[in-house]
Amino acid sequence: MPARMIPVGHILVVTIALSACMAAVSAEDAMPGAAFLKTHCAECHQGKDAAAGLDLTTLSTDLADTAVQQRWVRIIDRVHDGEMPPKDAEKPASQAVTEFVKTIGGWLRDRQQAQFVELGRVRGRRLTKRELERSLQDLLGVDIPLADQLPDEASTSTFSTIATGQAMSHFQLERHLAVVDVALDEAYRRAFSPPDELDRTLDVPQIARQNPKNRNREPEIRNDEAVIWSSGLIFYGRIPATIAPENGWYRFTVRASSLKPPESGGVWCTVRSGLCVSSAPLLAWIGAFEATPEPRTMEFEAWLPRGHMLEIRPGDVTLKKARFNGGQVGAGEGEPQDVPGVAFHEITMRRFHRGPEDEGVRQRLFGDLPVQRESRKSYQLKSESPSEDAVRLLAAFARRAFRRPVSDADLAPYVTITRQALDDGEELSTALRIGYRSLLCSPRFLYLTEAPGPLDDHALATRLSYLLTGSTPDATLIAHADAGRLRDGDVLRGEVERLLSGPGGRRFVEDFAAEWLDLDQIDFTEPDGKLFPQFDSIVQSAMLVETRTYLETMLRDNLSIAHLIDSDFTFLNSRLARFYDIDGVTGDELRRVELKPEHRRGGVLTQGAILKVTANGSNTSPVIRGVWVSERLLGEHIPPPPDNVPAIEPDIRGAKTIRELLAKHRSQDECASCHVKIDPPGFALENYDPAGRWRDKYVQLEDGRRSSGATVDAGYTLPDGREFRDAGEFRRLIVANPRKLAHNVAEQLLVYGTGAPIAFADRPVVDEIAERASADDYGFRSIVQAVVASPVFQSK
Q1: By CB neighbour count within 10 A (0-12 exposed, 13-18 middle, 19+ buried), where does 557 fall?
Q2: Which residues contact 555 (CB under 8 A, 6 or more apart)?
Q3: β-strand pairing of 248-259 with 267-274
Q4: Considering only CA atoms, which of 323, 307, 227 is closest in space to residue 273?
Q5: CA-to-CA distance for 687 and 206, rounded, in angstroms?
Q6: 672 to each of 310, 631, 632, 656, how far by Cα in Å?
Q7: How far is 675 from 668, CA to CA, in rounded Å?
Q8: Phi/psi of residue 437, each to 5°?
């Protein structure tokens, strides 16, 4: 049957099912769908008081409306899953349910597939701010941050790549043009100026304060060492000798040791940057290290705006802190207070560039044309045929910017504007900049060029590149696309392996997990220091690296996707291990740690980063965590609650209180079908506080002091009736069905990679992806490969 045709029988079924005269009994025998709705649904779902606001007598059948499609998908799913009719109603025969789902599902699927043929699954998708930054960096060879100069992406349920959630306003166009100018300015600066060079070696006197008698917040010299003591004083540990003379990337090597370390190990220190003055209090995170009695050398890389400096200090909140009067520190004031400290022996500061050196930037801009040095600070682009060279360079640049071959007709407007600049007396480099600017403001650069139907090789190369690297295709992918080889399964698999090898796998994991698991929201809340005094920025940083390293290991070793829920290992350093109450871990480098049952950890589900982003900093909510785990890890799509149902607020007074509230909530039919899915994972995680630590009792503040509240009860029952007592038992029950987890990850990757939500018509393809991955025990890498090979990924 052609994809555009909708069976007449299906249309009649739906028309009769939704007609105001649903009592047309004479049609019931011939139209099983109408009979099903009339018999099992119409009594509750009609009129102004229709259950859950679903009035079948007025529900539209116009599937061109996405909202209407979603309502019909919800109807099919609830009938298929046995959620409707409700428990107290007469249950239909299984054959009747099967026939109804098949009939209405076929009608919906056929209509969606017809839309896909005509318009494609994905509407016009533009580059996200992250993708735009990387594309400009790769095209021009620059390394300056650009994303923070662009507007935030519109809020969607998960991914910023979803086309229907991407706005394009006058303000965004203005900022796009501004960022293009910033990127071009930097590329031209590097092409026409001497190399950026800075190499400083700072000894102890240079690191420390210049006048030992001054009371300030810089290191002091004690026993030929530049010393900073543990303190809560803001900006204590700033090092003016590290001030950046210009915006740029800097590599620092710090040789340091600990003073008076605690019994728990070394002195954990933070490395941050900023102006370090009261009028600009924000500091940027660079890293952390554990200073030991024996001097060690650590290396850090950071982008420093002009005028910013390093601040390095003991940052472990569990350390005893010195007190200084007047907001400044004098020589020797910290030493007698018997607090830990860090001693600096040497710091080196070198400027460098991420990506190509200046010659690589020139090549991207001017190809083989020479850039000659006229004087110490003056360079000149040389050309014997400026007009012809301009056309040649524009064509090459447009080919890379538009991510496909460009015809003479497509290039003509840009050639015209560039030649006009030459005719007006502009130098070739200036005229080219005008042309490049126009190309980078074209919709062909900002938007992905995809025609309805199967993607051509260049569109497929682009989609694959942005999925796995977040940037424009590289030379190898372009060569395969030009030769028409990407449709070859072996070539495509090889390209996936190539792009995920080495650092590529880590970049993909970081990009994907940032939005899939909300890791980019980890700074959104801050655990209450009075309630959770063990948490600090060092712990948070380690949590992020733990989850990223864990996912990277799953991808590299093709581990089963079941490891998202449970496993016998994770990655810890001494500070995070101490936070988790896991003994025997030393050093500041994350290393693989084998987990035991008494550690109460396993899988991404119980990692601190996940537990933190699913809480609000003060308390936990089984509803919030339950919805998050259901949608992000378990593949349960939870619709928004009806408008007339009040929210359940978290209550840390005791698990019984929240259970009673939720029990009342579930007594309403419109709530029960969702809470039967939400509540089990939500309660399973109640033993983990908002900072990610295990708790047996809730913690509360009384008169400003921490005290123990009610005992946590994390037991519950799964929708299928299986019971669990805690997170460990919950994890073991969930991993018994890895196919469901694989199905969810495939969906997440398809949405992220294509820019469109999973439609009802896409479900068979997702099932096929999970089936293909089953041969490798649902390995993470196998799922990625199967997603890329799927017709959904390879079609608009």
Answers
A1: exposed
A2: 500, 505, 508, 509, 780, 781, 784
A3: unpaired
A4: 307
A5: 50
A6: 54, 17, 20, 18
A7: 10
A8: -60, -40
Give the pTM.
0.91
- Residue owning tokens 């650009």: 146
Q: What is the pLDDT of residue 643?
A: 61
* DSSP alpha helix (H) spans, 120-262: 129-140, 170-191, 204-207
Q: Tell me the backbone φ, ψ of residue 710, rounded to 5 degrees.
A: -70, 160
pLDDT band, residue 504 (cuts 50/70/90): very high
Find out whether 243 and 354 touch, Cβ atoms under 8 Å: no
User: What residues does 779 pair with on adjacent strands?
Assistant: 560
The answer to whether the Cα torsion of 603, 604, 605, 606 is positive or negative is positive
Cβ neighbours, 10 Å, residue 587: 15
DSSP bridge pairs for 699 = 708
Which residues are CB-neighbours of 721 under 8 A, at least 6 positions away? none
Measure the CA dihedral 18/24/27/31, to 10°: 30
Encoded amino acid at 227, one letter: V
Residue 484 corresponds to which tokens in the numbers above? 């028409």
* Structure tokens, 51: 């259950």
Instruction: With CA atoms as reference, report the closest residue to 227 among 337, 136, 145.
Output: 337
> Of 454, 365, 373, which is closest to residue 401 (Cα–Cα)?
365
Q: Which residue has the tokens 């390879």?
A: 794
Type and span of the H or E element at 380:
strand 378-381
Residue 41: pLDDT band by 50, 70, 90 thresholds? confident
Query: CA-CA-CA-CA torsion for 771, 639, 89, 760, nearest 10 degrees?
Result: -40
H helices of 19-93, in order, are 32-40, 66-80
In this prediction, residue 661 carries a pLDDT of 64
8 A C-beta contact, residue 565 and residue 735: yes
Structure tokens, 461: 């190369």
Positive or negative torsion for Cα 610, 614, 619, 621? negative
Q: Between 318 and 72, whose confidence is greater? A: 318
**Winning range, highest mean pLDDT, from 115-119, 242-246, 279-283:** 242-246
What are the tens digits of pLDDT across the range 352-390? Answer: 999 999 999 999 999 999 998 877 667 789 999 999 999
